[in-house]
């Protein structure tokens, strides 16, 4: 797949087919994604790949925790600001409204919206999940490096006719995840990535989020 096609076709898929992804394909994807740049080549990314019963056990334990102790789970880093402001607030709301509209969920239907949110923790039925972490003793630059690795991974998936959904929603449940994978104490859980084949008939997968036009975020200086 041409790089431009991979970038333009990448999206967050929220329903996957129950079709297995071979381990050798995942290993090849990780090997290529690891060509991402990093400051002084420290390569801070750490990946745990789960499937089958391990993935199901993580899903069950998190869903049980949400029912009984949701207020006891916090992420170890701040992904979003404490208070939203424009233009980010509007963009955030718009994508939420568009997703629920695709699913036919009314804005006032709080129960249906919550059920859709819980689908995160079922990995949207994806057969494979990758938990991405880094050493908490590293600094902010390593988050930049990790972002480039994750982007590589999402694009490489498209080259294998696979789709993904990157999910920071798992970060608050790092203590539960640690029960199932050997995530060292010094490793900070950043996100999970659901991986598999897109369900083309799913209405939620019709959502294509808009992007700001270039003049809205870029300036050009010194050109003749």
UniProtKB/TrEMBL annotation:
Residues 7-196 form the Nitroreductase domain. Signal peptide: none annotated. GO terms for molecular function: oxidoreductase activity. Its cofactor is FMN. InterPro entries: Nitroreductase (IPR029479), Nitroreductase-like (IPR000415). Gene3D superfamilies: NADH Oxidase. Keywords: Flavoprotein, FMN, Oxidoreductase. SUPFAM superfamilies: FMN-dependent nitroreductase-like. Belongs to the nitroreductase family. This is Nitroreductase.
């Amino acid at each position: 797949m041409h790089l431009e096609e991979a970038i333009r076709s990448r999206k967050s898929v929220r329903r996957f087919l129950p079709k297995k992804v071979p381990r050798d394909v995942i290993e090849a994807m990780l090997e290529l994604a690891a060509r991402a740049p990093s400051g002084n080549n420290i390569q801070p990314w750490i990946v745990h790949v789960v499937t089958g019963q391990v993935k199901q056990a993580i899903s069950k334990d998190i869903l049980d925790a949400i029912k009984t102790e949701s207020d006891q789970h916090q992420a170890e880093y701040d992904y979003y600001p404490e208070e939203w402001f424009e233009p980010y607030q509007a963009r955030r709301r718009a994508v939420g409204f568009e997703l629920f509209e695709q699913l036919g969920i009314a804005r006032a239907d709080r129960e249906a919206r919550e059920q859709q949110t819980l689908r995160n923790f079922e990995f949207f039925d994806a057969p494979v999940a990758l938990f991405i972490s880094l050493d908490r003793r590293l600094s902010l630059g390593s988050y930049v490096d990790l972002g480039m690795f994750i982007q590589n991974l999402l694009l490489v998936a498209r080259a294998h006719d696979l789709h993904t959904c990157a999910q920071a929603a798992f970060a608050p449940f790092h203590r539960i995840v640690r029960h199932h994978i050997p995530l060292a104490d010094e490793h900070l859980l950043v996100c999970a990535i659901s991986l598999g084949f897109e369900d083309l008939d799913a209405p939620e997968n019709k959502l294509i989020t808009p992007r700001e036009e270039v003049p809205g975020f870029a300036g050009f200086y010194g050109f003749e």
